[in-house]
Design a protein that fits this description.
This protein is α/β, with parallel strands linked by helices. It has helices spanning 9-19, 33-37, 58-71, 86-95, 107-118, 157-163, 166-176, 181-188, 192-206, 211-220, 223-228, and strands at residues 2-5, 26-30, 48-53, 76-81, 99-102.
Amino acid sequence: MTTLVGPSGLHRESLIRTLDTSKFRVAFSADSIHDLLLKPLPKSRPLLLIMDVDFLNGSSVLAQIADLKTSRPDSHVVVLADNYQLDDVASAFRAGANAYLTKFTAYETFIKSLELVLLGQSILPTAVLPFLPPVKPSLEPEHKQTPSNHAVIPEDEERVLSMLSPREICVLACLTEGKSNKIIARKFHIADATVKVHVKTILRKIRVSNRTQAAVWAMNNGLLTTVSSHAWASDQYMMADPRDT
């Protein structure tokens, strides 16, 4: 169940309308977590809380997050802030937040981030990710990846385009749409095994550990716009090749 907390009624209403057509439609909203907990929240369903904050009253915000985690330990908290400071991000996670996003986040990235949070992932502002330990490349299947490898490392757009082949860019674009290997194979008339190889290569090159992280990485690096504005999106780059298996 999606809930929303924020001191500004106007901002809350704007966000409610933004999410109204998504699967994260807001069921309850309030000025504070204390007021939210007074509402008839179902006990049997975990809460996804989007918390619209400013850190002028940082201690109050952190106390509210901690109180929610004490009252509803199965809840997921997404902090939505005007900007970020490294200390604020660290404090929010220590209090129990699962994600820290800025209000400049694109809609598609915001929705995908909420999906990741429900899957147990931790989301940080892309600008702070370079300060984290890098994710080691791996060709192991997704289910063997360690849960701690959540970081998605942003890259310069030109470098992004140079590190991925035209085929890999097309496959990555399909991953951002949630397409399975079988659907991608049908779309481009290639073998499922060929798509699987492309996906593994993409994960290794961009240093992420699963398809969902790859999709968020692509959106954070503007790859959706890049693909749609280049001839690389043409099916000719994905036509079956005699070398494909």
